[in-house]
Write a structure and sequence with these properties.
alpha/beta; 192 residues; 11 strands
Length: 192
């Protein structure tokens, strides 16, 4: 399984680094999983609070992904959801593969039309922004929502919960519990 995390200018650090940590640890436990970062042009980026980093791939050389994660933050609200190249990349991926968002990454999915007719959530301070998309059924007061190949999560640290749930759904309870233990993260396996 190849997991890609979309990154862009002013991305919220924990929105992408939290899931990166979860999937990075998972890849040590199960070598069939890899995780990478991808941006529009592959150039060095500066995240919301000043972290500078180099994405692994750009849109033109990104290998096929089994799952794409779209983080949020100021960059999602102000840049990514208005960038046609980013929206096209997200739409192309979501046409036949699972996609997930962390925090206000849901606004990128909504702008791309991926959330039309679906339940979704986002950071509590951006719930009203998500309601601006009339075809999205907004869910409040939850850590994450899964519906028809699309997963959305509430803000920032909820991205870790979402990533652990994605690991659990793809690789089982035992692996998800191991990853949480390595991270020393308080994680409870959801009741089915």
């Amino acid at each position: 399984m190849q997991v890609g995390i979309l990154v862009f200018r002013d991305v919220e650090e924990l929105d992408f680094v939290g899931p990166l940590e979860v999937f990075g640890i998972t890849s040590r436990l199960d070598e069939s999983l890899t995780v990478l970062t991808v941006s529009k042009d592959g150039q060095t980026l500066k995240a919301r609070y000043g972290l500078k980093f180099q994405p692994d791939y750009n849109f033109s050389n990104c290998p096929p992904l089994d799952l794409l994660i779209v983080p949020g933050g100021k960059g999602a609200r102000e840049h990514a959801r208005h960038d046609k190249e980013i929206l096209n990349f997200v739409m192309t991926h979501a046409s036949d593969r699972p996609i997930a968002s962390v925090c206000t990454g849901a606004l990128v999915l909504a702008e791309a039309g991926i959330l039309n007719g679906k339940r979704a959530t986002t950071h509590h301070s951006s719930i009203e922004d998500l309601r601006q998309y009339a075809n999205v059924r907004v869910v409040e007061n939850t850590r994450f929502v899964f519906e028809e190949g699309v997963a959305t999560s509430a803000g920032i640290s909820a991205g870790i919960d979402l990533a652990l749930e994605l690991v659990r759904r793809h690789l089982g309870d035992k692996v998800a519990a191991q990853v949480a233990d390595i991270m020393e993260y308080d994680y409870s396996i959801p009741e089915n």
